[in-house]
Design goal:
The protein is an alpha+beta fold and 335 residues long. It folds into 2 domains: 12-229, Sandwich (Immunoglobulin-like); 237-332, Immunoglobulin-like (Sandwich), CATH 2.60.40.420. The chain has 9 helices and 12 strands. The protein has helices at 2-5, 21-54, 71-99, 218-229, 237-248, 251-254, 290-301, 303-306, 321-332, and strands at residues 108-115, 118-124, 136-141, 143-147, 152-158, 163-166, 173-176, 182-186, 192-197, 210-216, 277-278, 283-284. Strands 3-2-1-5-8 form a 5-stranded mixed sheet. The chain has a 3-stranded mixed sheet with strand order 4-10-9. The protein has a two-stranded antiparallel ribbon with strand order 6-7. α2 packs antiparallel against α3 (71-99), α5 packs across α9 (321-332) and α7 crosses α9 (321-332). The structure holds copper (II) ion. Copper (II) ion (CU) binds at residues 114, 117, 163, 198, 200, 202, 206, 209. Copper (II) ion (CU) is lined by residues 114, 117, 163, 198, 200, 202, 206, 209.
């Protein structure tokens, strides 16, 4: 606990430093409960210490008077916690209703899908309801991009096992359960990058299933949406060669790379070059650098070797240097 307390304040995953109104709502309840518990804790320890010193065993000291079955005390220590819980229930229940409220009418709607071991984000044109299935405008992975000062309604689900979606400074934690879609509200006050983590043990690479929420101001967000909606540019040169390799090696069987055309096993790569992080946000594309290219080639050549349990096909080092160069050039052109 001491070591955890020494962690720097800006480690990015801190529920106690909320950066948006929904995270604040949860933090406020914690704050109240903490201070009540802290006062009680200090009182209990004080009484305990006094009792230990004053009534400790001394030679010739009889057993103290026993209080077992004392009706007044039994009633007292049953009623006191009940009253405390009743007090805490007021803000808790109020907050539960607030967090379950309908989002504002200008909200952004995103379906969040947990996969072993990465998060997919499908941007919807409207709110999903019992008798309305919204259209998916585009899909992205690992980086959830949101506007500041607007409600973001996330519809959290999973396609395989139970995951848990958690960006500590922007919202609470929501289990992602296959076959269920649970709405969760998120909001960010300031532009920035907010780190998160899958919070439900979901398999071998659970710890490698990170997430990042990126908040832009309204203009920045609109520009990003426009770029995601734009059709991918036609590749040229080495990238064109890479497109052919992409088709030939069956990459397209798992990865959509030309818009949103249905759900696939792997992340949508239509605009992959607009993202910084990949493979559950554990690697940095570092586009245009030799280190970035080397890491990406290592990933494509042998994904499960780079990330244990990754469900991407293991090409087990069968790809040639020329194929890998062409694939990286192709991916780099998906801006
Ligand atoms: Cu997970």
């Amino acid at each position: 606990m001491l070591l955890a307390g020494c962690s720097s304040n800006d480690n990015g995953q801190n529920t106690l430093k909320p950066k948006g109104k929904y995270a604040e709502t949860a933090d406020n309840i914690w704050e109240l409960a903490f201070w009540i518990a802290a006062v009680i804790g200090v009182l209990v320890f004080l009484v305990l210490i006094v009792a230990m010193i004053k009534f400790r065993h001394r030679p010739g000291n009889e057993n103290p008077k026993q209080v077992h079955g004392n009706t007044a005390m039994e009633i007292g220590w049953t009623i006191a916690p009940a009253i405390l819980l009743a007090i805490l229930a007021v803000p808790s229940v109020k907050s539960i209703f607030e967090l379950a409220d309908d989002p504002a009418s200008n909200a952004v709607h995103v379906k969040v899908v947990g996969h072993q071991y990465w998060w997919e984000y499908q941007y919807l044109d409207s709110e999903p309801t019992d008798d309305h299935t919204p259209e998916v405008l585009f899909a992205t992975a690992n980086e959830l991009v949101i506007p500041t000062e607007r409600d973001v309604a996330l519809y959290v689900t999973s396609i395989d096992v139970i995951h848990s979606f958690w960006i500590p400074s922007l919202a609470g934690k929501q289990d992602a359960v296959p076959g269920r879609e649970v709405r969760m509200l998120m909001a960010a006050d300031e532009p920035g990058r907010y780190l998160g983590q899958c919070a439900e043990l979901c398999g071998l690479s659970h710890a490698n299933m990170r997430a990042v929420a990126i908040a832009y101001d309204e203009a920045g967000y609109q520009a990003w949406v426009e770029a995601q909606m734009a059709p991918p540019v036609a590749p040229t040169g080495l990238a064109l060669e890479g497109e052919a390799v992409f088709a030939e090696l069956g990459c397209a069987g798992c990865h959509a790379a030309a818009g949103f055309d249905g759900e696939r096993l792997g992340p949508n790569l239509t605009h992959v070059a607009s993202r910084d992080l990949y493979a559950g946000a554990i690697f940095d594309f570092a586009w245009g650098t030799p280190e970035g290219a080397a890491q990406l080639q290592a990933w494509i050549a042998n994904a499960p070797g780079e990330k244990p349990g990754a469900t991407m096909r293991d090409y087990a080092g069968t790809l040639t240097g020329q194929q890998l160069d062409a694939l990286v050039a192709y991916l780099e052109s998906r801006t």
